[in-house]
Amino acid sequence: MAPYRGGWALMFRLVNVQRTQVIEGEAEVTVASFKRVGEQAVRHFTRLTLERDSVAFFPLAWTLVHPITEESPLRQVTPEGLSAAETKVMVSIRGLDDAVYDAMRARTSYQTGEIRWHERFSDLYVRRPGCPVTIDVRRLSGTVPTGKGTTA
Question: Domain Inward rectifier potassium channel C-terminal: where (predicted)?
Fold first, then answer.
């Protein structure tokens, strides 16, 4: 969760570790949390709107961005509020392997404690003179602090 274009955004970074390109990539991010309905706690699922939920091809890296806007279900959330609601963020990726045109899928989920606040992703691209740009997969989850401020 980091500052983004004058506001805030929840972001996830993906890399393609395949030797082939992934084409027709699609991403979906869903937030699951408990909400009180009378005396019961009911699990509630909300799909987040992504800045870009598909790419024609995914050769190196892709950062999924959910801008926190007035319409976002995450507006005015805090780490404590997400924790109290036992929030889980689920990410699903689909695409086609360009070499064999076979479907590829990947899923992961994040508990509230795994969401980093006031941090942005560090650079993962490796640039060398005379060589194509590559990525260093070891930097995938690397972040740097953005400074404290108000949350989304």
Answer: 9-143
Amino acid code (one letter) for 13: R
Number of domains in the chain: 1
Q: Residue 149 domain-assigned? A: no
12 pLDDT higher than 70: yes
CA-based torsion, 138, 48, 34, 8: positive or negative: positive
The count of C-alpha atoms lying within 13 angstroms of the C-alpha of 133, restricted to the half-sphere facing its C-beta, is 6
Please, are residues 66 and 15 in contact by the beta-carbon 8 Å criterion? no
Instruction: Enter the pTM of the model.
Output: 0.84
Closest CA to 79 of 34, 112, 45, 118: 112
List phi, psi (to 5°) of 111.
-80, 165
User: How crowded is residue 36: how many other Cβ atoms within 10 Å of its Cβ?
Assistant: 9
The H or E element containing residue 131 is none
Is the distance from CB of 23 to CB of 102 less than 8 angstroms? no
pLDDT score of 115: 92
CATH for 106: 2.60.40.1400
